[in-house]
Amino acid sequence: MWRKETVAFGGRARFDRPMMMMLRLALLLCLFAAPATAQNRPKVERQFRGWLEQTIWPHARANGVSRQTFQTAFQGVSLNWDLPDLVPPGTVRVVPKAQRQAEFGAPSKYFSRGSMDAATSVGRQMARTHHAVLGRVERATGVPGRIILGIWGRESGYGRVPIRYDAFQVLGTKGFMSTRAPYFTGELLAALQIAQAGHVAPRAMKSSWAGALGQPQFMPSSFLRYAADGDGDGRADIWNSDSDTIASIGTYLAAHGWQAGRDWGFEVMVPPQVSCTLEGPDQGRPVADWVDMGIQRIGAKPFPASELQGEAALLMPAGTNGPAFIVTPNFYVLKDYNMSDLYALFVGHVGDRIQYGMGDLIGRWRDTGKMYRSDIATMQRALIAMGHDVGGADGLPGFKTRRSIGRWQESTGRRATCFPEPDMKAALGR
Questions:
Q1: Which of 113, 148, 211, 322 could be 365's S-S partner, Cβ–Cβ 3.0 to 4.6 Å?
Q2: pLDDT for the residue 425
């Protein structure tokens, strides 16, 4: 319930706090709505058609795309004004100061009971159904079937999540007027090449709202590089073929450096004498060295003998506020698929649950969902001014930011937690 308060406003009137909040929200909505008003949309749509003809078509033609393929791809296509991060011509992007980031703000939600159990149970069914093709792909690429299943389950629910967006509408809109227009323009041209090669009919090319294609959610450029034929019919159909999806994921991971015979990582207990500031792939050392420092696998299980001399890194995605892991270079290959620590952990852990029947992570995620990206960016800038390498002031607490926070905490006599917390804002937010 709101607590009734009055606030001076403009020196004349006095409004209660809820009214102030409503006025601010209304102003913010107006600012965001301004670029997409109904009055200027027809003009922007005409500019979009001109951009397709004058900019995209010459590049497409130079890449071997026929006029017929081009026209079919954009037949009936208009801008999708509901997509995020759009900056129509003649407007200025309005960015709110307060931004939350779910990937880092609330890890417990990422590992919710429903998502974990669903990915595991259906994954086990898929492991039985596709045992043969998973085995073939593992022998060819070195990527374990359980890892492929983990990615497939996360990306599209093993093909059960509908993929409804028109790829050419999404990529066309984002290439024409998004905050990353050059990137999406390149992906649009790649999608035209996919259609020209006959992999899928242009009007049947479906994507996510971000332009990712099919069950493995490949961007078009990734499709051109890594899509594979897993069922032997001469095509790489990642929309309708489970076998092609499995082969394509394995091919992608192998091409990005998956090391056959190594695991992705292990949940561990970190003793108090091992600082969280030792996190990061650039501070990797043999698994045996971590063991000598007192790090143990959860449940007192020994590390596989084959892993002891292999390099591995400490990973603490929520600092001391969550589970800890020793991860191999294969963990960072998973991050090449999606640049999120939590994504890679989800995939690896679900894969282990599918194949080995493992239970939940033992470490518990504490509540870390109360920070804004803008606040974290302010803290990062303060750390940079002190000489710390935080990896950039982007408001995202990656491993460089986490350990820099830990080093600052240790240098000021605080207990190192290696994660941004609200009570640090006063000291680091100046």
A1: 322
A2: 82
